[in-house]
Amino acid sequence: MEKNRVYFFTGTGNSLKVAKDIANALGDCEIVAIHKGVDMEMPLGYRRIGFVFPVYYFGLPDMVANFIRQAELTKGNAEYYFAVATPGGFSGKPIVQMARLLSEKDIHLDYGAKIRMNANYIVSYGSIGLYYVTAMKAYKKSIGKIIHDIKNTTTTEIEKYSKRYEKIYLDTICNVHNMDDGFHASDACTSCEICTKVCPANNIALQDGRPVFQHQCECCMACIQHCPNKALNYQEKTQKRKRYTHPDITYAEISQYYQQSAT
Questions:
Q1: d(CA 216, CA 261)
Q2: Who's near 133: CB < 8 A, 6+ residues apart?
């Protein structure tokens, strides 16, 4: 049976859900989390290698972009490369950005797709219940086509580059690591350590039972979204906003993937 591998980056579990659905359909497919400590070495001989990720500021999460730059990726690792973005709102140009980064390694991105997921950037808005229902209905149809395409190694024409989106991305992504300047924990914190376990950047440590942030934030908002007591918040903006995590993905599953793919 042919081997496959899917890499994912997630905060709320949306991209892990997509990665799992693709992997289950392909069979003999490894799922690997992109996070601090992920193995940058990549074995040869895969039929397909894919990347699933959310959209940040119309582009790739910084950790995903850096993973592509640093990983030992070559044309020999796989016969077919694909990327699936999981935007919640305006999608920008994450696929063309992925294609450009891969091309620097002399790798051609064969297939790119976007699948709408529930919008959840909590520093700007809370989870919208009606939109969530709509997104879930659309998901079932969209994921079926994406899986069909990937199984059949369908190729797509990669979207065109946009200087406008690239400028927005570059002007904002450079600030994400200090995003945690605005994070704080209330007295509702119970020192459960869930925030430390779901952080892909290993950016949170507990001191005297309270989370302390190390300014290596990836802006995924996993710590805020997964906190069971809404003890973590951003400035004074998120206290009353509805949290969101994918209903099929638990914080324990996300953290387990981090442990499995650590060097």
A1: 19
A2: none
Residues 109, 83: contact at Cβ < 8 Å? Answer: yes
Domains of the chain: 4-167 (3.40.50.360), 176-248 (3.30.70.20)
How does DSSP assign 199-247, residue by residue? -TT--EEEETTEEEE-S---S--HHHHH-TT--EEETTTSTTSPP---T
Please tell me the pTM assigned to this model.
0.94
pLDDT tens profile 122-144: 988 776 654 556 667 788 889 99
CB 47 within 8 A of CB 4: yes
pLDDT at 67 over 90: yes
- Diameter over CA atoms, the chain: 53
Burial of 27 (C-beta count, 10 Å sphere; 0-12/13-18/19+): exposed
Beta-carbon-side half-sphere exposure of residue 163 (alpha carbons within 13 Å): 0
Strand order in the sheet with 46-53: 29-33, 4-8, 46-53, 78-85, 111-114
Backbone angles phi, psi at 82, to 5 degrees: -135, 160
Residue holding tokens 């091309």? 103
Alpha carbons 142 and 122: distance in angstroms, whole number: 25
Cα torsion 228, 257, 117, 98 to 10°: value is 140
